[in-house]
Amino acid sequence: MSDALVRYLDLASTQMKLTASNIANADTPGYRTQGFSFEEQMRQAMSGSASGAFSPEVQDVDGLVARTDGNNVSLEREGLEMAKSQLTFRTGVDLLRHEYSRMTDAIKSDGK
Predict the structure, then answer these.
(1) Of 72, 98, 105, 75, which Cα lies nearest the Cα of 5?
(2) Are the C-beta atoms of residues 38 and 64 closer than 8 Å to each other?
(3) What is the pTM of this model?
(4) Distance (Å, rounded) from C-alpha 21 to C-alpha 81?
(5) For the chain, does the N or the C end have fewer beta carbons within 10 angstroms?
(6) How many degrees, rounded to 5, is the angle at CA 65 between CA 38 and CA 68?
């Protein structure tokens, strides 16, 4: 499996966990929505500028409206983020499935 695909699936998984954490804290006073740029993190992974153990740079999401208790989680936004993350992860799994299929085909064709 290629490093890029591993990072892609790691990022997609991390995005889903982060979104789930945001949803779980929707009623926590003072909680700030956390997020990261999937595209930027993937770009860093592909350029080789990410070093060692890979973990995305998680930050507070700017521009969200906070309630009177200081919490700025929007369940509508998080629902959209979860749907996007699931599609991203499913794409990664399809790419992984394709890669294994190619390896299996190569192994089978070698035995002719």
Answers:
(1) 98
(2) no
(3) 0.81
(4) 12
(5) C
(6) 135
Per-residue pLDDT reduced to its tens digit, 59-69: 999 999 999 99
What's the Cα-to-Cα distance from 68 to each of 6, 28, 111, rounded to whole Å?
41, 12, 68
What the block records as the tokens of 99 is 């890669």
Q: How far apart are CA 23 and CA 109, in angstroms?
A: 48
pLDDT at 9 over 70: yes
Looking up tokens 């929007």 gives 74
Structure tokens at 47: 């350029």
In sequence order, what E strands does 3-49 have? 34-35
Residue 103 buriedness (CB in 10 A; 0-12 / 13-18 / 19+): exposed
pLDDT in tens, 64-112: 999 999 999 999 999 999 999 999 999 999 999 999 999 999 888 876 6
